[in-house]
Amino acid sequence: MRRRKSGLNFNRTHEKKKINFTIVREVLTWAIEIAIVLALAFVLVYFVGLRTSVIGRSMEPTLRGTDEILVDRFVYKLIDPRRDDIIVFLPNGNEKSHYYVKRVIGVPGDTVRIENGTVYVNGEEYHGELEYEAVTDPGIAEDEITLGADEFFVLGDNLDSSEDSRYANIGNISKDYIIGKAWAIVKPKTRMGII
């Protein structure tokens, strides 16, 4: 007859659990892939996914007051804005203001003047992507303006309805105040596309 042991038995040997390395490797692979996707999503949303609305008629016919656009915040960390780029900026760095959307006409080192309704850059008549009608109000650009090392001169495409670098309250745009480059219209659907 066997004697039954009562109480706790501390003499049992513990069996070691075997680790299934296939499952561990698969879990780690999934975790790394998820982390990469999340990082890419963050980068895309932060640098390229800024979405803003165009306010007013100042950029017609290129952009309308009902358009929502995407802004690339990364490109100008690598290169400077170029003539004819459509940029998004805060006037005088005022973070309480809405974003302004305008076209770059003059880049650092350029001279800009508006005389007899014509825009002159570096003494030559400006011929950009958009043909401007005669400028009725040259504003401060009636006298020649020389752009500093980090300054840009911008105009709206609809000059009769644009508050831009011609006016002292906007003036030349410092690179520090530029948010990014407008690159796509996302709303309304009938106007979706690359700018």
Beta fraction of the residues?
25-35%
The total of helices stands at: 2
Number of strands: 12
According to CATH, the homologous superfamily is Umud Fragment, subunit A
Which terms summarize this structure?
195 residues, alpha+beta, Umud Fragment, subunit A, four-stranded antiparallel beta sheet, elongated
Describe, in plain words, how this protein is organized in 3D.
There is one protein chain. By secondary structure, the chain is α+β, with helices and mostly antiparallel strands. The protein has a single domain, classed as Umud Fragment, subunit A, CATH 2.10.109. It is 16% helix and 27% strand. It is built from 2 helices and 12 strands; from the N terminus they run αββαββββββββββ. It has helices at residues 21-48, 75-78; strands at residues 50-53, 68-72, 86-89, 100-106, 111-115, 118-121, 124-125, 145-146, 151-155, 173-174, 178-187, 193-194. Strands 1, 2, 3, 4, 9, 10, 11 and 12 form an 8-stranded antiparallel sheet that branches. It has a 4-stranded antiparallel sheet with strand order 7-6-5-8, with no helix packed on it. Strand 11 and strand 12 form a beta hairpin. The longest helix is centred in the first third of the chain and has 28 residues, at 21-48. The radius of gyration is 30 Å and the shape is elongated. The mean pLDDT is 85.
